[in-house]
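User: Batch of two.

Assistant: Item 1 of 2:
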Amino acid sequence: MRGALKVTYVDGSDEFYEVDPVGDAPDLARNLREFLAQPSLTLVLPNEILVIPSSSIRHISVTRSSATLPEEELDTIPGVFLGAKRIVG
């Protein structure tokens, strides 16, 4: 399931990547739990490996192209809030 990854750094700059946030394994909740426990973000690009320390990241946004999220599994991860809506104010 292809998606877009947006990395916003602490200095306010952004970088965008096309990624496969789920891979061949359908266990999104397990993958997310493991991802959140890592001290860095590692991206394997066609000609390089990019390691971004978590201390450099303000926030990360992953937009999936389709498919529903397994909310009952995501609800078991501490710090994950279901049904959130972005507001401007």
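Item 2 of 2:
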Amino acid sequence: MAKLTRIAALSLSGTLLLVPYRAYAQNPNASDLRAAAVESFMAARTLPHNVEARKLMTASLEDDYLRAKRFIRVRSGRVVAFDFNAANIRATSDKEFAVEVESLWADLNEQIFATVYERLKFIRLKDEWLVNDIDFLRSEPRRRLLPFNVVSEKRGKLALGVAKKFMKGVLNRDPQLAMLSLTQSFQSRFKSQEELESFLKGPDDPRFSAYELQTLTQKDPKEMEVKLTLVSVSKGKRGSKSQEARLVVREGRTDWNIDEFELAK
């Protein structure tokens, strides 16, 4: 199977128009149609809700999906990146096929919590490929932030909380939320509000979709450095790339704020 970018961890907030892939289309290549159906379904699962994904399921799977405990975080998490090897699609007949997929899952704060492996089973109904079953194979939890290299764990958690709030704003392309955590010094480095907002939103496509914390290190009594990995994806497409980044969180008179945010070159 083609592997997702391995990471030790901006929400796809744009709307995708996702419809069931027709089994008979102008493209006569059945393998391509099956791969397109898989990609369409997995892309639907990257959305903040599960409405579009459910449209690509059979009625029986949709019922199971909403009820069953074994499905990973149906309501409190989502796929942020996925991959599969089209060559490994196995057709048992002209009306059924299966394929294994690998995906990165993030929580509601856009932080990666696991790599999940599943087997998707598709059937053809009324000339449309729909997912009929999702077999959970295994989940590999991501490691938590280590080492917690600070003098005071309590102060470290406060600084880390600010970093997480800031990253949620960045990854959801919500500059107003992100700016709530910025020092005046950080904001003054930009010529205009528009320039600052553009910087915080990041690139459109591929866009940053999630992150994973790497280290938290205290530089001086009032400054902590957070290193993290950002995951970028192209909207609706398989695969992902990783980008290292760095935050500096500084303590002010009343709370902690982001004083630096930069991507590794």
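The first helix runs from residue 30 to 44.
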